[in-house]
Recover the amino acids of this structure.
């Protein structure tokens, strides 16, 4: 006898839907981030991505209904911070250096070398 309830998707169907949803989410987020890079840079883009992800998790997971142990909350916070740093460094790798900042650095270096 199967433990599946009528009207609910099976385990395989749910897994497949979750994977497709994740792929769509990643592609949508990447295309949105690409348009935001020139306006707010990699730092702002990463911050917006993380805020949106936190809002979605807040609605789906509903953390106010359960309590986390102190150790679990600390581990979750460190994991989230490491993912945020990873996302920021990844985004910074795709963002080209701003020519005016490079030019300003060169001028400052050249003028300080002649003193």
């Amino acid at each position: 006898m199967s433990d599946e309830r009528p009207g609910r998707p099976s385990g395989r169907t749910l897994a497949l839907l979750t994977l497709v949803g994740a792929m769509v989410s990643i592609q949508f987020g990447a295309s949105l981030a690409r348009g935001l890079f020139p306006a707010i840079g990699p730092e702002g883009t990463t911050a917006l991505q993380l805020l949106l992800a936190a809002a979605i998790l807040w609605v789906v997971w509903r953390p106010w209904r359960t309590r986390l142990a102190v150790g679990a909350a600390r581990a979750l916070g460190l994991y989230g911070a490491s993912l945020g740093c990873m996302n920021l460094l990844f985004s910074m790798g795709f963002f080209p250096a701003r020519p005016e900042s490079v030019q300003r650095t060169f001028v400052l270096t050249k003028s300080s070398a002649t003193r």
Notes: The CA atoms of residues 54 and 60 lie 10 Å apart. The helical segments are 11-61, 70-94, 99-113. The chain has a mean pLDDT of 80.
